[in-house]
Design brief:
The strands form two sheets. This protein has a two-stranded parallel sheet with strand order 1-2. Helix content is about 65%, strand content about 5%. By secondary structure, it is an all-alpha fold. It contains 14 helices and four strands.
């Protein structure tokens, strides 16, 4: 069974419970081992029902096994965030404040829009990584490592946005919305409890220079491709400014990566983090290019623009609120998804990488 097929099979379980999702993935990734330095007691407050194997020493995992874990777990765990988003929309419609519902409050709408934009970014990035891992593409190891690092951050941060949106319901576990609390805690703990997700960036450092200049559709350099520039100018004019900014950052980062041997370890990790953000931007644009003109959320130019704006905010370390028109479109998408029960899936259009 391919990684993509395993992810699709595990996502419904992750939507109910992250522990159950890890169990469904076990044939692919094995039993996850929780490392407790020096022994002692393992406190797994988030994944309450998962039976971790506890070890005093980190097990040596081969490169193929680490790649499978790093590709599959974030991509499948996205379903937990998807479920939390759907539950939060239902809660926001049911809860009345100040003469209206929660989603009538501008700040609540902004939180929901930001969380959905980050979820869409994580979906694009992790889906592209899964496809490259399955195709055994030459750049799979670096793409998967970058994706594992950033996808886990995006999932955890989006979950925190959802926790604020849910207010006291989050920590009080009020029925029928206690699932929100469960998923927020699970996603926040995921990268800590699954060792191969805890520190994936060092695995990408040796390939950063090649990846930044790769012509791959989801490498940072693809943001500079003429056909991408033309498509955005034609069908997503609102995204031109943010795309130009990210493309310039991709060019600057490629130049810095070419001199990466002179960087100290901290600077190298900072560079790898920025490359992961630009890789996410490329994945979002690539997903939009494939879905362009369709009714899918990934083909919506406003949704794509919102994702790019959130990514740029992370690149420049200053996150302004999304414009009102983008918030309105993303809230509408979130409400439609909650009403339909639609789940995020890995689009077959992304599986275009030729095998080695």
């Amino acid at each position: 069974m391919s990684i993509a097929e395993s992810v699709e099979r595990a996502r419904p379980a992750f939507g109910r419970d992250v522990a159950a999702g890890l169990g469904v993935l076990e044939p692919l990734i094995g039993r996850v081992r929780l490392v407790v330095p020096g022994g002692g007691r393992a406190v797994t407050s988030a994944l309450r029902t998962y039976r971790f194997d506890v070890s005093d020493v980190a097990p040596e995992s081969d490169a193929a096994a680490a790649t499978a874990v790093r590709a599959a777990v974030p991509a499948a765990a996205l379903a937990a965030l998807d479920a939390a988003l759907r539950e939060s929309v239902q809660y926001s419609h049911a809860r009345h404040l100040y003469g209206g519902t929660v989603l009538d409050i501008p700040h609540a709408r902004s939180l929901l829009a930001a969380a959905l934009a980050d979820a869409l970014t994580a979906d694009a990035l992790s889906s592209a990584a899964v496809c490259r891992a399955d195709a055994r593409a030459a750049a799979a190891s670096v793409a998967v490592a970058l994706s594992a690092h950033l996808s886990c951050l995006l999932l955890a941060e989006a979950a925190q946005q959802v926790s604020v949106l849910a207010g006291s319901t989050f920590y009080a576990r009020i029925a029928p919305f206690e699932l929100i609390e469960q998923h927020v805690r699970d996603l926040s703990a995921l990268a800590v409890l699954v060792p191969d997700l805890a520190d994936p960036l060092p695995a990408a450092l040796d390939r950063l220079r090649a990846w930044c200049t790769d012509t791959d559709a989801v490498a940072p350099g693809s943001l500079l491709r003429p056909e991408v520039v033309a498509a955005i100018a034609m069908d997503a004019p609102g995204a031109v400014e943010v795309h130009v900014s990210l493309a310039a950052a991709a060019a600057e980062t490629a130049a810095e990566a070419a001199e990466s041997e002179s960087l100290d370890p901290h600077q190298s990790l900072e560079l790898a983090h920025r490359v992961s953000l630009l890789t996410a931007a490329a994945a979002v644009v690539d997903g939009w290019m494939h879905a362009r003109g369709s009714e899918a959320i990934t083909g919506d130019p406003l949704a794509m623009e919102a994702c790019l704006r959130r990514i740029r905010g992370r690149v420049v370390r200053r996150q302004p609120p999304l414009p009102a028109d983008l918030v309105a479109r993303l809230v509408a998408h979130a409400e439609a998804r909650a009403a339909s029960g639609e789940e995020m899936v890995i689009g077959p259009a992304r599986a275009t990488v030729p095998p080695m």
